[in-house]
Structures are given as C-alpha cells and as structure tokens.
Design a protein that fits this description.
- The structure is a single chain.
- By secondary structure, this protein is of the alpha/beta class.
- Helix 1 packs across helix 2 and helix 18 runs parallel beside helix 21.
- The longest helix has 16 residues.
C-alpha cells in the first residue's frame, strides 16, 4: 500500500519506492548492492505491487530495463550499485539514449560525508553520464525525493524519450523524513499547428516521388494504427528507419523496406531520388541515411518534412522544408484525419518501391549445409504474428532483418546503437513481461557470450523464450570490415567457442544443435513443446558471412580493387 499520509515518517528508501508505485511501476530489474539496501528493504514491502527481477550482471539488467521500456512505453526501471555496477550498466543507458527509450537507472552512491575522497567505488555520475543521459541527478536530501523523482519520470517520457540517471547516497536512503508524495508524472505531447498540417498537405499534393520514413520512440498501438490510416489513404510508400520495422505492417503493399543494414537497392535509390521525404519520429541518423550519404547536409536536395518530439533534433543535421515539433501519438492522430490528396497519382511509385522490397528477399545460396535465409523464411511463415524477435549486433541480423516481416507493433527489440549482447536479456525481459507471446532471441556466437549469463535469469523466472545462436566461429561483422580493408590479414576476429547447447542445458534449458537447414523446423518445434526455456545452436559455414556475398567474395573484391 502506498503511504499517503505526509505526516508519517519514512526512510528515503520508502519514499522512493512509494514514488515508483505512484508512477505505475510494476517491474524493476536489478543486481543487488550494499549501497542501496534501504531501497531493497522497501521493495520487500512492495513486492505485491512491484516485481523485482534479479539479474546476473548489471549490463544485462540495464538491457532488460531498456527492452521493457521499448515494449511498454513506460520507463524501464533498473537498480545497480555504485562503481562497477554503474559502469557495467552504462551500456544500457547508451542504448536507451540512441534508441529514444524511456528508462530510469538508479545507482547507489557513497555516503554524503565521503564524497570527493575517492571513497570505495566512488564515481561522479554527473560527469560520467553527462552526455549519455537526458538528465543526471544526485539526491542529497531525502525530503526532495518526491520532487526529483517526479522530474525524472517527466524527463524520461516527455519530448524525445530517453534515459535518466538518479544517484542515491546510501546514507540519504536511511534518513527519516516527513514529506508528502508527489502525484504521477503526466504525459505531455506537442501537436502540429493547423498551418503546418496545411503545408504538409500542399507538399504531398505537389510530390511525384514522396517517401515516408518512420522511426524513433514514443509510439503506441493506436499511433501505429493511425499512421497506417494516413499511409493507406494517401497511398504513400513508407520505409522504416533502422530497427523500427514494427511501426508498419511489412506485408502491406505500401511498405518499401527498412533503411538499415539490409536496405534494398531500390529503396536506397528512392531516398536519393525522392522529391519529398516525410520523416516521422526518426532522427535521420547515420544508419538510416547510409552514413549521411543519401541526404545532403545541411540542405537536402529533396523537400524534407521532419516531425520529431524533441525540438532539439529539428535542424540539428538537416534543414527541413517543414519542421514539426510533435509527439507521435498526437501527430499520428492528426494526420489520420487528413483527406486523401493524390492517391491514384502515386499508385505506380508506391507499387514500384514495394516490388523492390519484395525482390530484396531473394538471396543466393550460401556455402554450407545451413541456409539462414530458409531458416528465417520458415520462422516468417510459422511464428504467430505477435511474436517478439530480439537481436543484438552482428552479421547474423542481416538475415533476420531481410527475411522476417513484422506485422504488428512491438514485435522487434533491437538496439539502434549496434550494441552486442542485447538479444538475450531483451528477450528475458520481453517474456517475463508478455509471457503469453512467443519470444525468440537471435545472437551470434560473439554476441551471445557477452550476456549469456542471463540464461540463469530466464531459468529462475521460467521465461520460456527460444534463443537462436548463429555460430560461425568469428566476430563476423568485424571480419567483414577487416576483409574489405585488409583482405586476408585476419587478426583479432577468430573465436573458439564452447558447446552452446551443453552450456544451455546446464541452466536447465532444452537445447538443440542444428547443422543442416532441414533440421531446424523440428528442432524449433521441440523447443516450444518442451515447456522450458530453450536454445538452438545453428552451426553455419564461416564462408556464409552475409546474405549476398561470401567471405571469399568480399576478400576477392577488395583485392581486385587495389
């Protein structure tokens, strides 16, 4: 029960936990530490309201909180201890920042009378996280916790969503104070002005080759439905920014593909040759713009409409023809009401881009007995439409992003900052949060072992996910770049791996090893039927480095260009 009596004395830890409950927090992820024992004690009394998920490493805990924030739209909550705990967790904060995910990281801190002495595990978190978070605060007075936590929740969720870091001196958490609670944080969204919507309509009416690009954070199921209404009514082609493919049903005729590592040549040319780019929510970062090569800086040759919830993003890299500072939910609702402008006139253009997207499914046969394109095609045909796919970073994601079609909102959890080790903890968080949905984690052999310890968390909470480890015995992405720049000079990219299936069984998982394409479907079915967390190790030929080119072909091309 939340303490609503402001005259009742409470410790700082109790004040903090009451604030979490007031703001609707139902789950938090942590690795325990002595620096915030008072919070853990208060969470003991709140266990009927807040599910505390105990993880095995702070990086995994932070990834889980970030994935929870992506999945729910609510701030992912993570507690870690000072020093090493905070530095381990920083990878999740960086991911949340670049992915525009609401998140609050609470860090235990040294006692206030020990500051600036380089006390045990002491770090100045304002300096450490200054460019990595939306806001960093150290709470020196327990009486200010309701005020500062209210600000933390407001900052994490409003404008461009992102991470907030709150440092908690351990002696502050045991102080006893009489202080009233603050109310829950409010969701505040800017809306597009009527004149801006009229300008948008005029630009669409003039366009011959328009393209909508969607991405970023702050979306909801209703906003995605409203976006679809707008796209279909205007008959516009729509592309997703890097790892935002679940914002539009990939099976619909308006879909043009994703502007990421698997972008098709038709889509790349469409961005270059478009006469109107309507960018909704995406930042137009390096991955989405092909290394800032597809759109001229600072003034694009295309007319550019840029809609973003963070006003600081508008004009940051590109000068837009029309800049609109608006939240995704409100803006999507506004454009869903706009009348059709020229849908028939855009029919051929939209159909052309959709054909290009579908043509990009085609991949040549890969060396070896396992064809990853066929594995992904089977999953695409057989997984329920609301299945959640997670991944980290690596060349294996090229097959996933190229061949899997996302049909509903929040079916993809992947880090836009290219962070390895994300897939497994993200899938654990997803399965704990949405236990009725199928959750599949993808990882390369290098990616998996960066957070493979979180299999223990999955086993502990009976999170019945399926982990797919694509094992080619190398850091594949780095090897690809190495062969392009230094062909034949292999250095630092080889891996010597354990038996991943045996490793998973040691945690109580059901596990399978796949060495040929035709083995996969039955192996996957056995994983699902096992009613246990499960892992499939897929052993692929090292030559099968990308969906389009083999390792040898990449090397030969590099040598030929010298």
């Amino acid at each position: 029960m939340i303490n609503k009596n402001p005259t009742l004395a409470r410790t700082g830890g109790q004040v903090l936990v009451d604030a979490l409950r007031i703001n609707g927090v139902d789950r938090a992820f942590c690795v325990p530490g002595e620096s915030y024992l008072a919070v853990l004690d208060a969470l003991h009394d709140a266990k009927d309201d807040i599910d505390l998920v105990v993880c095995r490493q702070e990086g995994g805990a932070a990834y889980m909180a970030e994935a929870y924030g992506k999945l729910t739209g609510k701030p992912g909550i993570c507690f870690v201890t000072r020093g090493p705990g905070a530095t381990n967790a920083s990878v999740g904060v960086h991911t949340a920042f670049q992915d525009s995910t609401p998140m609050i990281l609470f860090i235990g801190q040294v006692a206030r009378d020990q500051v600036e002495r380089e006390a045990f595990q002491e770090i100045d978190y304002r300096r450490m996280f200054g460019q990595m978070a939306k806001w960093v605060v150290e709470v020196d007075d327990a009486a200010r916790l309701p005020e500062l936590l209210s600000q933390a929740f407001h900052r994490a969720t409003n404008g461009r969503p992102g991470p907030v870091v709150v440092a908690l001196p351990e002696d502050m958490l045991t102080d006893v104070v009489n202080v009233p609670n603050a109310g829950p944080a409010q969701s505040i969204e800017a809306a597009a002005a009527p004149a801006a919507l009229e300008h948008l309509q005029a630009l669409i009416a003039q366009a011959k080759r328009p393209l909508v690009v969607v991405g970023g954070g702050g979306w909801s199921t209703q906003a995605v439905a409203d976006l679809r209404t707008f796209i279909e009514r205007q008959n516009l082609p729509v592309a997703a920014s890097f790892r935002c493919q679940d914002l539009f049903d990939n099976t619909l005729p308006n879909y043009a593909g994703d502007l990421g590592l698997a972008a098709g040549p038709e889509l790349v040319e469409a961005v270059k040759n478009s006469d109107l780019l309507i960018v909704i929510g995406a930042r137009l970062g390096e991955m989405t713009t092909g290394g800032y090569a597809l759109v001229d800086i600072p003034v694009p040759k295309q007319k550019l409409v840029h809609v973003h919830p963070g006003i600081e993003e508008l004009g940051r890299v590109y000068q837009p023809t029309l800049a609109i500072n608006a939240g995704m939910k409100i803006f999507a609702a506004q454009i869903a009401l706009l009348p059709a402008i020229n849908p028939q006139g855009l029919a051929d253009w939209t159909a052309q881009l959709n054909r290009g997207y579908r043509a990009n499914f085609e991949c040549p046969a890969s060396p070896g007995a396992v064809q990853m394109s066929e594995v992904i095609a089977w999953l695409n045909q057989n997984l329920p439409s609301d299945s959640i796919l997670t991944c980290g970073a690596g060349n294996y994601t090229g097959w996933v992003h190229r061949g899997y079609q996302h049909r509903t909102f929040r079916t993809l959890l992947g880090p836009t900052n290219g962070s390895m080790g994300y897939g497994v903890p993200a899938a654990v968080a997803a399965k704990i949060t949405e236990p009725q949905r199928t959750v599949v984690a993808f990882a390369g052999d290098g990616c998996f072992l960066m957070n493979g310890q979180e299999l223990a968390t999955a086993a502990n909470y009976d999170a019945r996910l399926v982990v797919i480890v694509v094992n080619n015995g190398m850091y594949g992405t780095i090897r690809m770049h190495q062969e392009r720049s230094y062909p034949g000079r292999v250095s630092g990219t080889e891996l010597h791996n354990p038996d991943f299936a045996m490793f998973a069984r040691s945690f109580g998982f059901h596990a399978e090893t796949v060495t040929a394409t035709e083995q996969f479907s039955e192996a996957f079915k056995r994983c699902v039927d096992s009613q246990k967390p499960a892992l499939i190790e897929i052993q692929v030929d090292p030559e099968a480095l990308t969906p389009k080119m083999t390792l040898s072909q990449i090397r030969e091309k590099a040598l030929a260009s010298r």
